[in-house]
Hints:
The chain is globular, with a radius of gyration of 21 Å. The chain contains five helices and 15 strands. Strands 10, 11, 12, 13, 14 and 15 form a six-stranded mixed sheet that branches. The protein has helices spanning 65-73, 76-93, 167-179, 228-236, 253-263, and strands at residues 6-8, 10-11, 14-15, 25-26, 37-43, 46-51, 105-108, 113-116, 122-123, 128-137, 140-145, 157-160, 183-194, 199-208, 222-227. It is an alpha+beta fold. The longest helix is centred in the N-terminal third of the chain and has 18 residues, at 76-93.
Amino acid sequence: MNWKARLLKMDGLDPVFDDAGGLQWGTLADAAPDAELVFLGMLDGKPCFAPVPDGNETGPPFANPRMWNAMGMLSAADLASYGGARSLVDWHMRHRFCARCGSPTQLAKGGWQRDCGACNAQHFPRTDPVTIMLVEHEGRLLLGRQPRFPARMYSALAGFVEPGETIEEAVAREVHEEAGLRVRDVRYIASQPWPFPSQLMIGCYSVADDDQLTIDKTELDDARWFTREELEAARAAGKEGTDTLLFPQSFAIAHTLVTWWMNKE
């Protein structure tokens, strides 16, 4: 009963919006005849699919202002649907050839696997763990900004977990590398999938032994300590922010982490 199936419409890896500002869904008839389709799951009793685009994405996704707007417009449910679809179809775009022998691979198990017919290797979608961490020192919070951030936007420091590391070790290493600080008392707060292309953001909290920063300028444009009052003012100012700070946007885990810190006492 193909008429019951839904197809998530996408412009490459970008979402396509309906008139109400949500995700636009079509039917399987909207897919190209030779398109690979991945199964996303069931929604309202209907199977949902997404097409794997031709070609490869070029440039970082957040260089496109449309992507920032999309993240801010979509509901939580639509963000979850789009985020899962984007990660999955992007993985398929980047794994059309076998990493073991270089032969073409074929979609399998509804898009949750790719098989190599030449060497029989099986390839599975991956998720890369990234720590994103709050650092506190005597009632102030450390936030940093990367070159790609809009003006006045600061966020929690973040970095990939390297092979052989624990989450706690990754937090300590990244903070020391980027800001020159030694941290302790690392604990987990929350997590968020981040489909650019396929990270799992692991939100943590830590305490710094001192506040003397040594900023790695290859990683950060700037990093500074913010008081609770400065963060409260930026949050109250909404999307416009204050003269010095834009509060992290609501769709990002940094927003959740900073809000947790502001409310924890």
